Amino acid sequence: MSQRVFSGVQPTGNLHLGNYLGAVKRFVEMQDRYDCVYCVVDMHAITVWQDPVELKRSIREVAAAFLAAGVDGSKHIVFNQSQVPQHAELAWVLNCVARLGWLNRMTQFKEKAGKDRENKSVGLYAYPNLMAADILAYRATHVPVGEDQKQHLELARDIAQKFNNDFAVSIAANGLAPEFFPQPEPLISGPATRVMSLRDGSKKMSKSDPSDASRINLTDDADQIAAKIRKAKTDPLPLPETVEEMKTRPEAENLVGIYAALSDTDASAVVAQFAGQQFSAFKQALVDLTVSKLGPINAEMKRLVADPGHIDRVLGEGAGRAEAIAAVTMNHVKDIVGFVRR
Asked: Which positions does the motif 'HIGH' region occupy (predicted)?
């Protein structure tokens, strides 16, 4: 089996710098090493209510961000999840493999649901099983994940192993390899895999933060980027002299990490370059770097979003290629489980 990467991004709110550094930038970098399947996970988005008109716009905008950043939709697969029915179909089978106790341990549901869990959707509770289906439908070998998604990938691995064990006899009877579903490996590398809020270094940069100043959106122009970085929270001390010192200074660590990720270097190199300088000088350097990296992406996104027909064609063509892979997997699953199919 070829080494295949699967990853997805939710179309909820504006994509921001954290999404770019943690996901989209890495999508581009992985294209030369893996067979890549990149998905706009719109079915995950509706685990909380979405305005239908806004959801459709957001799906196209995320796809535009993929393409504008450099994802090659002709060589790799770019599509939106709801166009490939095997995601939902496999998710049901995996719902019947996964255990309630496993889902009860998922910390992200507890964080998102808060104290009002009884009124949250079943989809929000069970969506880690859909995430497992997203990955396993393509029998992906690698998944780029942030720290907050590692637990869900571990669940996908557990589900894959349990399926292989539960149906070992049937898998063999159908002439398939014992490890029908591979154990997908996490890809976590590079600086700034977890980008924090510009207003609070202890909180992750988020689309849902009520303060737009907390994040740099991929749709922000140069003036907006500059204003947000200049107003980013720091402490009164100069930049750290060592990487160790940053561990007690979250805002400094966040800005240094962003600079490192955008410049394709590491925190130690950034500290060596700016150690002891005032934040005002460092912030200007960060403004210049951020604008130079995001400016072309911003311009190309605007061009693509203005042509929704083109984006829809890319998504539709990608969905056809994705379904050709997922249908093979799902047919095997039906045979393994014991369904009668056409």
From this structure: 11-19
Same domain as 104, residue 27: yes
| 85 phi and psi angles, rounded to 5 deg | -65, -20
Closest CA to 311 of 87, 5, 56, 16: 56
Residues 177 and 295 in one domain: no
- 195 a known binding residue? yes
Structure confidence by residue, pLDDT tens digits, 20-57:
998 899 899 899 899 999 999 999 999 999 999 999 99
Report field, pTM of the whole predicted structure over 0.85 = yes
Annotated catalytic residue, options 56, 162, 207, 334: 207
Per DSSP, the chain holds a count of helices (H) and strands (E) of 16, 5
pLDDT in tens, 11-28: 987 899 998 998 899 899
**Residue 147 annotated as part of some ligand binding site:** yes
207 classed as catalytic: yes
Q: Who contacts 298 (Cβ-Cβ below 8 Å, separation ≥6)?
A: 68, 218, 219, 220, 221
Of 112, 120, 162, 233, catalytic = 112
Q: Give the CATH number of the domain where residue 93 resides.
A: 3.40.50.620
Q: Which amino acid, residue 320?
A: G
> Are residues 265 and 316 located together in one domain of the fold?
no
Q: Which of 56, 120, 204, 334 is catalytic?
A: 204
